[in-house]
Amino acid sequence: MKKLIFILFIITGIIFNLSGCKRESSEKKLNIDKYQIYNNEKNITEDKKVDKGIRRLKSNIDFNSNGIDDYGDFLEGGKIEAKNRPRYNGKYWQGGYPPEEIGVCTDVIWRAMKHGGYDLKAMIDNDISNYPQDYPNIEKPDPNIDFRRVKNQHIFFKKYAESLTIDINDIEEWQPGDIVIFRDDYHIGLISDKRNEKGITHVIHNLGQRNREEDFFKKEKPVAHFRFDAENIDHDILIPWDD
Fold it and tell me: pLDDT digit string (tens) for 214-241?
């Protein structure tokens, strides 16, 4: 009888220990799950804070009368260019315009503006013709290539667009459709509506890289930042795109 009681005692202890292990394992798994859920909720909250605190600027101008403001058109045109991912090639083209499957950084800009109804090539060509002294880098005007040079786009936007901060941490001042220039007229891009976890904007640009809309400010610092606001530009300067 004592032997039987002893055996029952041993079995009860084993069952108790096993159930305890199982309970402990379940509690550990539950804690892990709670931690993962907490992290996910935290990340979502941080993302919402980034978006919630930044106002999205809209232009008062809809130059091509398509129901979308200019800044929205520039952004949409830039995103189309990013999606198309034209092969990087700075070849000289008779007539100026490269085919859609080919492009460089400056092509992102005129194509984005074309989407808003503006002919950036014609506007730059006119400005070079009317104010050659403002383009000291040009010895002899060449409409086939002048508008595709960063230097010339920089001069044009400096004259007619709104110059803004180059402090990337002043996050609300960087708006979709803005234009940004890097180094000594080395590169140009368009500001995206995407932002990183700090609220710093991504850049739509073409250096031949795979991802044409990326967190580029991690790699390069801006030297100029513009916003093309037709409301503040003489109408004689503005030339619509003519298909």
Answer: 999 999 999 999 999 999 999 999 999 9
Write the pLDDT tens digit of every residue in 106-120. Answer: 999 999 999 999 999
CA nearest 78: which of 174, 190, 234?
190
Q: What angle do CA 101, 226, 182 make, to 5 degrees?
A: 65
239 and 198 Cβ atoms separated by less than 8 Å: no
Find the range with the poorest average confidence among 25-39, 81-95, 135-149: 25-39
Higher local confidence (pLDDT), 29 or 189: 189
Q: What angle do CA 158, 163, 165 make, to 5 degrees?
A: 140
- By three-state DSSP, how is residue 35 classified? helix
By C-alpha distance, which of 220, 171, 215 is closest to 194? 215
E strands within the chain?
Answer: 87-88, 102-103, 162-163, 179-182, 187-195, 201-204, 213-214, 222-227
Q: In this structure, what are the phi and psi dihedrals at residue 102, rounded to the nearest 5 degrees?
A: -130, 145
Distance of CA 163 to the CA centre of its chain: 19
Which DSSP category does 60 fall into? S
